[in-house]
Design goal:
Number of strands: 18
Distance between the termini: 8 Å
Helix content: 10-25%
Radius of gyration: 18 Å
Length: 257
């Protein structure tokens, strides 16, 4: 099968979040996809094949399948528009999270992802202390989100993965705050991988609506403050969040099974 590595939410290679994209002629068995993702050992491997109405798309970490991946979707959109269907003005992906769309633009790709609900919660003081964050607010969705006082607090946050692993109710843990040069900033941690994710598109399906309400605006600029870094423009709509980002090709080749 054809295989690509795309740096997503990146203006050039070695930035943003790398995703593998496997293009198959027919669906693969989940066990096979899981083995390929583990072999690739990237934050995400996307599996893509053509259907009558668009493209079927699934995402796997090195350990498991997940229900939504923003940077994997951006990487898949790049592969479709550069190698599979260059004339496509709108790309439709059929996924566990419903029908997602990607629109190539002069500034990159605009992804239309589902807007996700969240609730504000309290954690016992002992748990907040263990997290080492001192959050102003705590949000619960697929991920646990800690709203911190300012960008400096987000930058200096140091995760203790032995603590984060205890919060198994959530897929990941994010810290966020209003930005100094952007509307908001974020860092995202994957306890199962004991690693910081470079750029996490899916968490912005929660963060963008939250900060839109806080800041009183529907179009926001965001930056993920990982070592590789990544920039996003978020547009909050009624049922969707549009994420605009660019991508760069790092590798193309073949996988033999």
């Amino acid at each position: 099968m054809n295989y690509y590595i795309i740096d997503a939410f990146a203006e050039k290679t070695f930035q943003g979040n790398p995703a593998g994209v496997c293009v198959t002629q027919t669906p693969l068995e989940p066990a096979v996809m899981k083995k390929i993702a583990a072999e690739n050992n990237l934050p995400e491997t996307a599996f893509l094949h053509k259907t009558k109405a668009g493209y079927a798309l699934r995402w796997f970490t090195p350990l498991e399948e997940i229900d939504l991946c923003g940077h994997g979707t951006l990487a898949a959109a790049y592969v479709v528009s550069h190698f599979l269907e260059p004339a496509a003005a709108r790309i439709r992906f059929f996924t566990q999270s419903g029908v997602l769309e990607a629109v190539p633009t002069s500034k990159g790709y605009e992804l239309f992802l589902p807007r996700r609900a969240f609730e504000k919660i309290d954690l016992p003081l002992a748990q907040q202390t263990a997290l080492g964050a001192g959050p102003v607010e705590i949000l619960s969705s697929r991920d646990l989100i800690l709203v911190l006082e300012n960008e400096a607090a987000v930058r200096r946050y140091t995760p203790d993965y032995s603590v984060l692993n205890a919060f198994s109710r959530w897929l990941g843990v994010a810290v966020t705050a209003q930005g100094e040069k952007t509307d908001f900033v974020t860092r995202y941690f994957c306890p199962e991988l004991m690693a910081e994710d470079p750029v996490t598109g899916s968490v912005h399906c929660v963060l963008a609506p939250y900060w839109a309400e806080k800041l009183g605006k529907s179009v926001l600029t965001a930056r993920q403050l990982s070592a590789r870094g990544g920039a996003l423009r978020c547009t909050v709509q009624k049922n969707r969040v549009a994420l605009l980002g660019s991508a760069a090709l790092y590798l193309k080749g073949e996988i033999d099974l």
